[in-house]
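BUG: 3D viewer hangs when loading the predicted structure for this chain

Environment: internal workstation, default settings.
Expected: structure renders.
Actual: progress bar stalls at 90%.

Input used:
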Amino acid sequence: MIERTEIPLGKFRRRIRRNLAPCACTAVLCGFIFLLFAAFTDNGQTDGKRRLPEEGYRILPPALPDTLSFAGEAVPMNYFLVRERLERELMVNTYWQSNQLLLLKRSARYFPVLEKVLKECGIPDDFKFLALVESGLANVVSPAKAAGFWQLLPGTAKDLGLEVNDYVDERYNLEKATRAACAYLRMLYGHYGSWTLAAAAYNTGKNNIDYHLQTQQTESYYHLHLPEETTRYVYRILAEKLILNEPDRYGFLLEKEDFYQPLHTRSISVDTAIHDLFAFARQTGVSYQTLKLYNPWLRERQLPNRSRRKYVFLLPTDSIGRE
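Structure tokens produced before the viewer hung:
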């Protein structure tokens, strides 16, 4: 006769949980080891052969042209070091797709302004790519306090006739900053007789380029041994020229509506102090956000203007940005 022992229900449940817990842990551990083993043994291979990527997915080096020029000056594409350095910048920009897409989109908005001023100032059109490389066509500020599309330092900007103070910073006025940069580039070209060297000097400074030309006894940018940033600088400009002139060739397929459209503007002149730019924006029929977008040279919420200087404000011609 088998003697039965009555076990309270709560005690029975606790006993079951105690017995099952080690089993559950063991099962989880075994599953984890199996997955880990599968991951390590497969490692992208099937039957001893590396698995191919999805059909249509290819990573190819970007195409290099046989001939190339910058501002009408030939690039020595027969020199292997030139080709390798240009290829590096093309690869960096081609495969940094998100950034390059932004540059392509912004170019449709801002290149027309740059092209117009460059032409009026007698500066080769290729220098619009220098502005793109300097700033990404955005009003950025560097750690050295260079600012705007052309990344002008405060002292340089003032020397070139731009107003730079707590209330107004014309480095952010695209047309005025472009004219100032053109004056500087014209001076550099007059010194070197080479637009390529002028571009390099724009990056590192005239004194630095003079030193390297003198010590290395060469007159060609492409044969100078320079610090890394300046070594890459002109090649970055050339790479952007190639990509933006033929985006399809480098895999960027944009429709007309994908580009950011130019800002169509009207202007008003003011020669008095403005004590409240929030109220001024409302009076002109736009939001403060729109006022700042079209006039990024305004740095504070007021414009004292003690000298009664005439300032030209740009405003949208359409209803966009109006309240």
